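Q: My labmate handed me this sequence with no annotations at all. I'd like to see what the chain might look like in three dimensions before we decide whether it's worth expressing. Could you predict it?
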Amino acid sequence: MKDQSFTFEQIHIEVARNASDDFNLFHDKHKWLQVTHNPFKGPIVLGFQLNTLIEYQIRLYREAHHEDQIIADNQLRFSNYQIIFVNALRPRQEMTLDIKKTLIATIPELTLTNRIAIKSQGKTILLGYKKETKHPLFLADTDLSGLPDLNTLPDKTVVPGTEFFLKRKWMNNGNVKNFLSGSFAEQSDYFDELLQVAQYPEVFPCSLTSGALLEKAQLENHDFKRNPMVYTSHDISVDRVHLATLKNNGKLHILVKQLPESPDKTLNHTSIMLRTYECFGVLENKAVLFRIKLNLVPLEEIIKNLSAKT
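A: Here is what I predict for the chain of 310 residues:
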């Protein structure tokens, strides 16, 4: 597929961050200045916003190549995103999205894979894959069946007997439409009030984990100005069968677990330790909607590493 170009404006960032309750200072048109040693020289586009742009463009690609039929016929119910963030993208900075031709593998099971890359001004912004599979590619072994009834627990608390922080969200069609529009996705392909169609996109529910992480950090008295964290990767598996059941005002429990940092898990070719979070989106009926592994690092460490190289 030929590269398509897009240019985000600040209003796209505003819309996306408001729709997903992401209050990270990096995206705020005023508060980005308050981040100590902010190297980005302005607000930056949300990672989940770029993921949604990828989701929509691959959806169009699948339809054009009749691959949506292969997915349906073979019950490839999991949509998986494997994204590595290399550089930040600023508003008014033209970018291109490149989706490589679909590779279809049958061993060990049927998988559709597309490589993806976003570039801007000669730099790579992100790299990754989108894969369609029968089983989740990420955190598939985590069994959540033993959890207590999440509906009975207070919001923003630790689930008893576990290391999971719980953040409760309610689905809202208006927020989803805004997030789609802020990510250059055509909202009318998902929502049509006259036809009573409301089909939730894959990435939007996942995007709410950013706000959940921020709220968890806030309760732990994290200093967002002095010690901001940036995403280095997103590994996402979404269950399309459960996604199809989402409705306006539907309840979503977001579970977040922080893994211990370890010298064995560092940012590629550096000594910077990754902070890894395992996140799950659980519906009211205990169905697991999404599984996400997020890696973050302190901005300060990245700057130190860059200055050591120069």
